[in-house]
């Protein structure tokens, strides 16, 4: 084929040139151009431009796609690891029969030949599941703690309610607010006293608090 594309060195336009001739005229700017030079220029330009642009784009696409894939894989891996961790801990909890077994589980995990990361995951799941398992005990322990703190505040609360009722009665000569407040105060006192004299309940709560304390000593975050 004699007629091919060339690139005009003068204006840069792509123009038809006759390969068999030495010179041609640019169809864009009309300049006389060297045919071989114009063919060479066009090839060089094609080699440089589209190739690089394409390569750059592909590279960029490749990075984002592979990054996305990597993120997805990492997320999936994390999910699988979490599920496996939960399964492991729940199996171990199933195998525990005494409170002592449960108490020592944390130390057993710490003594395992595992990476720090795996141990950390196992321990945080263990804490979470133990909290769930000891939900009632934790509540009793909290009750015990508040019963230790409340003797004075409980009585003062009842007296304040009664005093407000009496003051309303006295200053506004209204009967009902005073009666309601006195009833509330009496109920509060009765509740408070029954809490404190419920020896069995108190004993249970105290035991619960001591048990929770033991777990905390072992490092459980409850
Ligand atoms: Zn030209």
Give a verbal description of the structure.
The protein is mainly alpha-helical. Among the domains are: 3-67, no CATH class; 138-202. 77% of the residues lie in helices and 7% in strands. Helix 4 packs across helix 7 (199-217). The radius of gyration is 42 Å and the shape is elongated. The N and C termini lie far apart (86 Å). Bound molecules: zinc ion (ZN). Zinc ion binds next to loops. Zinc ion (ZN) binds next to loops.
List the helices and strands and how they pair.
Elements: E1 3-7, E2 14-18, E3 23-25, E4 32-34, H1 35-95, H2 99-111, H3 116-133, H4 135-149, H5 151-172, H6 176-197, H7 199-217
The structure holds zinc ion.
Compact summary:
This protein has 222 residues and is mostly helical. The protein has helices at residues 35-95, 99-111, 116-133, 135-149, 151-172, 176-197, 199-217; strands spanning 3-7, 14-18, 23-25, 32-34. 77% of the residues lie in helices and 7% in strands.
Number of helices: 7
Q: What small-molecule ligands were found? A: zinc ion
| Major beta sheet, strand line-up | 1-2
The largest β sheet comes out as: 2 strands, antiparallel
What is the mean pLDDT?
86
Question: Which tags fit this structure?
Answer:
binds zinc ion; 222 residues; single chain; 77% helix; mainly alpha; two-stranded antiparallel sheet; 4 strands; elongated; 7 helices; two-stranded antiparallel ribbon
